[in-house]
Each structure stands twice: as C-alpha cells, then as structure tokens.
Amino acid sequence: MRAIVAILKDSFREAAASRVLWVALIAIAVVLLALAPLALETSVSNRIRPSELVDVEKFLKSLQQGKESKETPAAHIWSLLSESQKTNIDNWLKPEEDKENGDSRRVRSQVLEIVNEHLQQPDFYRAESWAAVEMNDELKAAESAPAGDRLLSNRNVQRLAAAFPQSIVINDAAVLTLWYGSIPTSLPIPLPPSQINQLIDGTIIGVLSIFLGFLGIAASLLVTAGMIPKTFEPGEISLLLSKPVRRSVLFITKFAGGCMFTLICATLLVGGVWLLVWFRFDLWRPELLLCVPLYVFLFAIYFSVSALAGAIWRNAIVSLALVVAFWVVLTTAGAVQGVLGTYLMSQQITDVTVAGDDVFIVSSSRTLSHWSAETNDWAEVLADNNGESFGRSMRQFASAGMRPRVVASPDGSRIYSLEAGFSRASGANSATLLSGLKENNYQRESEGGTAEPVFGAFMANNGDIILPGTRSVSKFVGLTDKEKQSRAFLNRFLGGLVPASSSKAFESLTPTTMPAIRADAAVAFNHGDDSLVIRDNGKLMTLIRSEDGKYDIGTTRDFDDKQAAVIASGGKFVLMATADGQLSVVDKATLETVAEQALPKGDKPKVAEFAADGSWGVLMTHGGSVVLFGGETKSFLPWVPQEDGSVSAVGFTSDGQLVVSDGRRSLSFYSLSSPEPVKTIVGKTGFFYHIYDYLISPLYTILPKPSELDNAVSYLVTGEKSVAIGGNDPESDETATENLQQTRISFDLWASFWSNLGFVAVMLLAGCVYLSRKDF
User: Fold this and answer.
1) What's residue 493's pLDDT?
2) Closest CA to 719 of 243, 198, 228
3) Is 179 helix (H, G, I), strand (E, B) or coil?
4) φ and ψ of 326, to 5 deg
5) Which of 222, 507, 643, 668 has its CA 20 to 30 A from that of 234?
C-alpha cells in the first residue's frame, strides 16, 4: 500500500511540475474572477416586452380610432404621437402595406419602440382619459403618489395593459437587470424573472462544456500522454519493479495518477462556479459538485486509450495520435447514428385520429397519412402537389409548436387539417385550413387562412369546425369557389410561405370583450359538450358553448406557477401536466383538483388526451412513457400498455379505446378492461430501419459514448433527461414559457455510464495483461 501511495504522490508531483497545469489553473482563475462581479437584480418593468404585445394589428386599430374619440386612452395616446408616427401607423394598417412587408416582427418592433418611448414621459397618463378603464386598487391609489422615473414607467405599463386588455398581456411585472459590479450593463435579459433558472443553467453548462469538456480534456491529454511511456522506460521501470508492487497494479495506479490533472482543474472550475452561483445569485446547487467526478470520468475514457497505447509503443506521440483517431471514429459513428436516427424519427407517428374504420396519422415530418387496406400500409393524404414543397418545408421548421392533427367526420368521409404559416417558432400560428374528401382519395383543398394565430382545429358534435385562437374562437363557414381560386393563386405566387388569410371563411363565436390569449397557451377541446379549456400563464379557464353556438367564459382558476403545460379535457375532467413534471386532474365544472401525481424525475410531458366520455385519460412524455387516469375510480391506473417507454403518439377512438403508437409506424388499440391490445395495425418498415436495427444500433451500443456524458452534465444542472432540438426562434426576444411540443431527444444516463465504464475496464485490462507478459 505504501508503494501505491508513493506512486500516486509521484504522479501528483509530475502533474504539479507541468507548466500546462499552471497555465490551465491560471486561466480558470481568470475566468472565475471575470465572472465574479456578475449579478442579477430584479426591478419593476418599465417597458412592454415583445411577447406581451399579443395583437399588434388590434392595438394599432384601437390607437387609430383615437382620431375620432375623446377622453379615452386611445385618444390621449394618439395626441402624444408625432405626425410621422401617426403616418407610420396609418401605413401599417393598409392592406397593401401588410402584403409588401410580410414581416410582423419588424412592425411589432417598431410599434414597441414608439410605445416604450412614450411610456417614459410624465404626461403619458391622464386621469380623465382613463376614467372608464377598470384598474386595480394599487393603480388607483398610485395616481396621487410620487414616483421616480422607473416606477412611473412601470405604472404606465400597467395602465396601458388595463386600457387595451385584448392587445397587451403582461407576462411579469418585474424585469431582470444584469450588473457587473456596480455598473448596470445594457445586455438584454431575454427571460422574465420567473425563468431565471433557465438563464443560469444555460450559462453553467456552456462554461463547463468549453473549459472542461473541450479545452480541459485536450490539455489533460497533452500533459499525460508521456506519463505511461515514461513509466516503462528501462531506467524508470527497473526502479519501480524493485518495489513490492505488481506490474498491473503499477499500471492502474499510474493511470489513476494521470487523472490527477483533470481532477485538480475540474475541482477548481466547478467549485468556483458553485460558489459564484451560491453567493452571487443566492442559489444552493450542491449537485454541481458531481460534475467534478463526471469530467474526471470523461477524461478517463480518452486516457485509457492513451495509457494502453503508451504501454505498448512507449511513445507519447503515438499515444496522442491514437487518441485522435479514436475520437474521429467515435465522432463518425455518432454522426452516422444521429443522421439515420433523425431520419427514422421523422417517420415515426406523432398523432393519430380514428373515425369509424378509418385511421389517420401524422408523422414527425408532418406528413398526413391514411391506413389503406389495399396496400396494407400508410398512404399519404392532403399531399402538396402544387409546387409549394419549399414553403411547406419552411413552415414545418418554423412552426414546431402547432399540432397538425387530422380532424375527421365520424364516418371519415371528410377530413380537415391545419397547415401553419411561416411565423414564430413556438406556440400558435396563423394557419391554412385544408380539407379532403374520401371519394377523391383525400386530395388537398385549401379552405382559407385564419386571420389570427390558432391553437388547433376541432370538430364539434354538430359537425362545426372550431378553431380557438389568440383573440377569439372561430367557426369555419367556408369560401366560394371564386374566393378559393383567388386565394390559391396568391398562395402559389408567394411560394407557400405566407398563406393569404381570408376572414370570410371564419365566423367569430366569442364576444369582442374576450381577453387575448398568449400564443404559448395550452388549449383543449372537450368532445362531450364542445367546451374549451385554456391554460394561459398559470390561469385555467373554461369556455362553455351555449345553445346559440357562441362561447362564453365559464369557471376560472389561478395557479401559482406559470409554467408551460399540456392539457386535455373529456367528460367531467381536465388532465393537466406542467413542465416540471407535476400531473393533475381537475373537475371541469369547478376546476378543483381530483387527483395528483408526479412524473419520473427528469421526464417532461408532451401530449395529453382524454376519451370523449371521460372514461379514461392518458399523458405521454418525451421519454415515451404514458400515465393513465381512470374516470370511474378518479385515480391513476397501475398498468401501462406494452409499448410503454417507446410510445410516440396516443389517441382515443369514438367508443373510448386507447390508441398507442410503438415509436415506429404501427398502432395498438386497447380497451379499459384489458392490458392486452384489442387489435394492431402494423405499418411497413423499409431498408433503413433494417440497417439501423441490425448494424448501426448494435455497433453504436458496443462503442463507448463519451459525448453522451454531456447529457449527464445537463441532467445534473437542469434535472432534465432530454434535450430540445433546434431551440426557439433566434429572432424572438423571449418566450414566457418553454415549448413542450418541441421535439426532444431523451437519453439513458445509466446505459451511457455502463457502456463507457465497460470500455475503460477493457482498456485497462488489456494494458494489465500486456504488461504482465512483457519482458523488461
């Protein structure tokens, strides 16, 4: 034991004597000192954020009407505008101007610039103009209270939102300011205070990945490449072998000693980040310290290759060359597996609709298909055959938040679907309603474009197509043939990127006083009574359809958390799951909680569905697992379908059967009374599936996967076992909540750990066997 300790001490002294180590430690210390003055301060918001101006057009029209009105907020604000600003507003509201610009974000940005400029002015608020506006007691009491510039602007923000509730929805009354020491920076903070953890987590992952995951591993390999070859040089080995220690123990001990370099660097960087997060941001994150052994383990994977090569060839350059070759092989294998895996993922079923004997699906690539009994496979429906494939591809990329599910009549004779427009990357988007007739093999027909962002299309019991949007709930009433032809021409002329809207095709079913709904809200349709349930910024609200077909606001409930959520409604229940994995069922009439349950740690909800009669509901997670709820027992069910763990789509038939996809191209139908499927539909899988299943996947499973340890770092920091693909729209200033519909890739931490550990063990065993048989 004394000899082993002596070897470890020698390794530590060798690492301490390296100039590279000291350079690395100094660099890390400089980075930590540079980050130390950073701090975040929460203060009152004095500006309207981009996501809070939910309806630019309606807001501008309201201001424009201030020309003719008196003693209203619109009239007062209009009087404050300069002549050039009034001219710009008039131009923005011209139909031809909208067609020329085609960029709502640019208009939104310019409108916000004008509004935020006037919010800072002392004469923005005039009590007489706001006399008819309903304001809370705090704002009323503040009319005569003194205020500084920032507090005055904050009150003006709230007053503006109260005056235009259908156009402006305040996400958070506070704002984050980044300070560097005692100096406030101009760096924009894209997230409201409620989302501060996302900003800090992203920064931590970025710092650790760069300075430990890339630079740290490369520097460590440069320093330790000559350690094993030097150990077994004639002069060195004779001295070491004179001590009472086996060659294999010597090799393992020198390997452990070589990890000292990474251990020292990782301890300093991770420990420093942990202390900064604790003292500067008041966040207690002890799990960050687990990143130290994690990065040492990551280094050990590459160093095991270097150690074995050094023991065999006793040359530091050869050791480094083989490590580089090892990295190239792993990177190439990972790229091949990733490309083919992404292709197969684009083919998997993500949505299913059953209408009588007809079954419709939507793939991850947003292709709509119908089960054909003739070919015993899926056949595409509503196909785009008019040269708009480029626009269609762009819309698929840009509108990942809208579910393009198929809406079918009870007998499957007619189907509808939404094709999202080119707009924001998440949440609701303006869309084109498509339709197809069974007698025409579901050929694509454009029915009209929505005038506002919508959350989906649903079929009511009387056959009406209901489209809940950000400003109202609409019903599809159709277009004349001439209007359809005109619209189709314009759509082709624009390349399919900007579908021309047609308000004539839709009729509003809600009162004009209905509050605006944010684009990242969650909306569910109850097929039992045609009611709607909306969760928006932590507020749950029901919309009840009356006998005349209109929608009125029903019960509402405010929740403390404002996280993103997925919801479903059926019978007397509403199933709801938030981004942190909390699952609950509430009574639809009272919105009181009926049952609660937590998802496995790290998993995120993706889709929720409910049978029309409320007999049971299902929640699907991004990890491919499902949770079932029984309406009769008002509790969560203990059994799960056979596909649990790889499920990619869920749905219900009209008679209450649960439909589950296997993560590929097949479906299984389950009844509530039996865990065995009633029937299955098996879609055909092609050549690439066989290549992936029998060649790529086994090889990738055998090979070590050091790059997947980055996922472990992400899990330790964020607590999530999946990573989002693509991210949010880079041009969007902020998103109040994350997009749970966005495609995410789940990872198995333990599978990666055992795979990498097994590889290190094999490399070390090979080195021990070689040295035990080698004559020195």
Assistant:
1) 55
2) 198
3) strand
4) -60, -45
5) 222
C-alpha distances out from residue 465 to 414, 433, 547, 571, Å: 12, 10, 16, 20
Question: Where, residue-wise, is CATH 2.130.10.10 in the chain?
Answer: 519-663
CA distance 274 to 268: 10
Does residue 639 surpass a pLDDT of 60?
Answer: yes
Which residues does 274 contact at the CB level (< 8 Å), separation at least 6?
285, 286, 288, 289
The more confidently predicted of residues 361 and 253 is 361
Task: Note the pLDDT tens digit of each residue in 699-741.
Answer: 888 889 898 888 888 888 888 888 777 544 434 444 446 778 7
Buried b (16+ CB within 10 A) or exposed e, 273-290: bbebbeebeeeebeebee
Edge-to-edge strands, sheet with 679-681? 650-652, 658-661, 667-670, 679-681
Structure tokens given for 210: 């760069």
Residue 63: closest CA among 150, 129, 153, 140: 129
CA 416 to chain centre: 27
Residue in the structure block whose two tokens are 């021990």: 768
Match 């070590």 to its residue by tokens: 704
Structure tokens of 328? Answer: 């190239």
Structure tokens at 108: 């939104």
Q: Long-range contacts of range 327-331, CB-CB < 8 Å, 24 or more positions apart?
A: 327/302, 329/703, 330/703, 330/704, 330/705, 330/706, 330/707, 331/707
* CA-to-CA dists, residue 214 to 119, 319, 372, 706, angstroms: 47, 18, 51, 12
Distance of alpha carbon 674 from alpha carbon 423, whole angstroms: 44
Range with the largest mean pLDDT of 74-88, 95-109, 140-154 = 74-88
Cα separation, 454 vs 418, in Å, equals 9
How far apart CA 203 and CA 65 sit, in angstroms, is 46
Quote the tokens at residue 752.
């990666």
Per-residue pLDDT averaged across 421-445, rounded? 77
Copy the structure tokens of residue 397.
């990329």
Decide if pLDDT at 346 tops 50. Answer: yes
Residue 423 binned pLDDT confidence (cut-offs 50, 70, 90): very low
Burial classification of residue 757, based on how many CB atoms lie within 10 Å of its CB (0-12 exposed, 13-18 middle, 19 or more buried): middle
Q: What ranges make up the beta strands (E) of 665-732?
A: 667-670, 679-681, 722-724
SS3 569: strand
pTM of the shown model: 0.82
CA 692 to chain centroid: 27
CATH superfamily name and code, 519-663: YVTN repeat-like/Quinoprotein amine dehydrogenase (2.130.10.10)
Q: Work out the end-to-end distance of the chain between its first and last CA atoms, rounded to an integer number of angstroms.
A: 23
Of 550, 570, 567, which Cα lies nearest the Cα of 611?
570
Q: What is the secondary structure of 4-60 as a DSSP string?
A: HHHHHHHHHHHHHT-HHHHHHHHHHHHHHHHHTTEEEEEEE--S--GGGB--HHHHH
3-state secondary structure of 661: strand
The closest of 172, 194, 161 to 53, measured between CA atoms, is: 161
Residue 19 CB-density burial (10 A; 0-12 exposed, 13-18 middle, 19+ buried): exposed
Going by the DSSP 8-state scheme, the letter that residue 557 receives in this structure is: E
* Segment holding 65, helix H or strand E: none
Residue 689 Cα to chain centre, angstroms: 27
Q: Which amino acid is at 334?
A: G
